[in-house]
């Protein structure tokens, strides 16, 4: 971490924190909530590293007032949270569950009373289990059910939410949930998972139309991006890099911005008019960034057209991910140069790191590695702005230590430490750093 002062950011820059419903809410059986694919997955033996579930998580459903107070103390101007589809529509169809919407109504009002903009994500991977039983995102009908759900939520909250995000990381949900089976719903389809990409994007476009019909805007999507680092200089290595880049970075961006699917992905189940629906204008592109990906040519007869290789020579997070702040600047300038005027303003909707944070003898939690991570990545964003990229916000992942999907409670990303036995929240030193050095400067 440099000792130089953090450079100033443009006036009106949105400083925030992010979470997601299944990772923090708990309240699995509260007020008529139905099961999601993550409930099913987490309760299946052997799926989660520590055998835990999100049944309680951080108990945010019952403690959201305490968590809003933490955000107010932090001084952030925005909070990105997700709405649990099974809490709003337990069966994935039909009328809304009023008690489920009441929770988000209270949360939104409490945020506004604290001077914090509510930024709501409609789908952060917790598909209602009855929709999965009917085929999930492999079934085109799920895209239409998603639009109906978006309409129900907008009808209740659309007058107060300041930014809507339709989908969170559709690439990750496709690849880990349906390609390799590491995440819910646990399907192992490899490239046969591509219909999931198209149906998620179609659902996004239909949801954009539903939100606009309710007068709810601005609207965004949050994509996960990973710049390619070639580990080899042959033509085969370059072809492998192009293949991975198309899959991870362009598959969920080219069609959004009117280019259709990248070469090699034309087999998606596209019907007449689908690409126009998907390319409906958005107001913000959400960018989630954690690290680049090392790529080289695969061995002969490998199942994939690339081989992913660990990047050496960088500090590592507790997830064993390389810490490469320059990759974020590279990504932002690549988006700017590649998509030009079609690219809307960008907000960094997730950026953060997991470390094994533990309280000291006095109960304090020192996390200098996270401070260094945030310092480097914020400087990368500022450099990209200087390069001409229109970046208008940055959300730290995450406000709280949470239930980290297949890793259970073993990975801590929060600015606030959570004792998962007692639910005691303890702001870490990174919380104070973000407050004092960035947000409240």
TrEMBL record:
GO terms for molecular function: beta-glucosidase activity. Its EC number is 3.2.1.21. It catalyses: Hydrolysis of terminal, non-reducing beta-D-glucosyl residues with release of beta-D-glucose. Keywords: Carbohydrate metabolism, Cellulose degradation, Glycosidase, Hydrolase, Polysaccharide degradation. One of its GO terms (cellular component) is cytosol. InterPro entries: GH, GH_1_N_CS, Glyco_hydro_1, Glyco_hydro_1_beta-glucosidase. It comes from the Bacteria. One of its GO terms (biological process) is cellulose catabolic process. The active site is at 169 (proton donor), 350 (nucleophile). It is an enzyme of class 3 (hydrolase). Substrate binds at residues 23, 124, 168, 290, 397, 404-405. Belongs to the glycosyl hydrolase 1 family. This is Beta-glucosidase. It comes from Micromonospora palomenae.
């Amino acid at each position: 971490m440099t000792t130089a002062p953090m450079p100033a950011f443009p006036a009106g820059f949105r400083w925030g924190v992010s979470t997601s419903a299944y990772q923090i809410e708990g309240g699995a059986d509260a007020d008529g909530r139905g099961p999601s694919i993550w409930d099913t997955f987490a309760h299946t033996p052997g799926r989660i590293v520590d055998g835990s579930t999100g049944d309680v998580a951080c108990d945010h459903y019952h403690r959201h007032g305490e968590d809003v107070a933490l955000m107010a103390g932090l001084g952030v101007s925005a909070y990105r949270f997700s709405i649990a589809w099974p809490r709003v529509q337990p069966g994935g169809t039909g009328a809304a569950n009023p008690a489920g919407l009441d929770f988000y109504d209270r949360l939104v009002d409490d945020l506004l009373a604290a001077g914090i903009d509510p930024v709501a994500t409609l789908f952060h991977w917790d598909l209602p289990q009855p929709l999965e039983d009917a085929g999930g995102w492999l079934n085109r009908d799920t895209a239409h059910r998603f639009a109906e759900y978006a309409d129900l939520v907008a009808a209740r909250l659309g007058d107060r939410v300041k930014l809507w995000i339709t989908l969170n990381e559709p690439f990750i949900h496709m690849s880990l949930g349906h390609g390799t089976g590491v995440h819910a719903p646990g399907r192992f389809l490899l490239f046969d998972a591509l219909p999931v990409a198209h149906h998620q994007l179609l659902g996004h476009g239909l949801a954009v139309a539903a939100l606009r019909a309710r007068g709810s805007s601005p609207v965004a999507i949050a994509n996960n991006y990973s710049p390619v680092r070639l580990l080899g200089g042959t033509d085969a290595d370059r072809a492998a890099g192009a293949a991975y880049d198309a899959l991870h970075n362009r598959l969920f961006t080219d069609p959004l911005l009117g280019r259709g699917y990248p070469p090699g992905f034309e087999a998606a189940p596209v019907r007449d008019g689908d690409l126009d629906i998907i390319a409906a204008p958005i107001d913000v592109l959400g960018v989630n960034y954690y690290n680049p990906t090392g790529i080289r040519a695969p061995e002969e007869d490998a199942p994939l057209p690339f081989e992913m290789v660990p990047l050496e020579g960088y500090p590592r997070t507790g997830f064993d991910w390389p810490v490469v702040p320059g990759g974020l600047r590279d990504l932002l300038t690549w988006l700017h140069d590649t998509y030009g005027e079609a690219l809307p303003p960008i907000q960094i909707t997730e950026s953060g790191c997991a470390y094994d944070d533990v309280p000291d003898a006095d109960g304090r939690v020192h996390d200098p590695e996270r401070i260094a991570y945030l310092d480097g990545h914020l400087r990368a964003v500022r450099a990209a702005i200087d390069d001409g990229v229109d970046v208008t916000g940055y959300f730290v992942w995450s406000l709280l230590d949470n239930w980290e999907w297949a890793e259970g409670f073993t990975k801590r990303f929060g600015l606030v430490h959570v004792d998962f036995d007692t639910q005691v929240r303890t702001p870490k030193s990174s919380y104070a750093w973000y407050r004092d050095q960035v947000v409240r400067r």
